[in-house]
Specification:
Order of helices and strands: EHHE
Strand content: 15-25%
Distance between the termini: 34 Å
Largest sheet: 2 strands, antiparallel
Helix content: 25-40%
Number of helices: 2
Number of strands: 2
Strand order of the largest sheet: 1-2
Length: 80
């Protein structure tokens, strides 16, 4: 299970076993999320900032896709 302290996450079957893995991370609405955060930081009192940051993204609009795959087996180690 993949998890996130700030949003929903999905179950995923991750590749297993020894090897060399590749990873790709794509994002959507990152700039929008940063702008909302900056707006809160500039306009909210420190006592209300935490709640305002949460309310700035109701349901969340920032999304990530993480892909991982086995790209090659581990090189043979002659010492084993």
């Amino acid at each position: 299970m993949l998890s996130s302290p700030t949003g929903d996450a999905l179950d995923a079957d991750l590749p297993t076993g020894p090897g060399i893995y590749a990873l790709e991370v794509a994002h959507q609405a990152r700039e929008q999320a940063l702008a909302a955060r900056q707006d809160v930081l500039e306009h909210e009192d420190i006592t209300t900032r935490k709640e305002a940051l949460v309310n700035a993204q109701p349901g969340g609009f920032e999304r990530y896709r993480i892909r991982t795959w086995l790209s090659a087996a581990l090189p043979y180690d002659e010492d084993e």
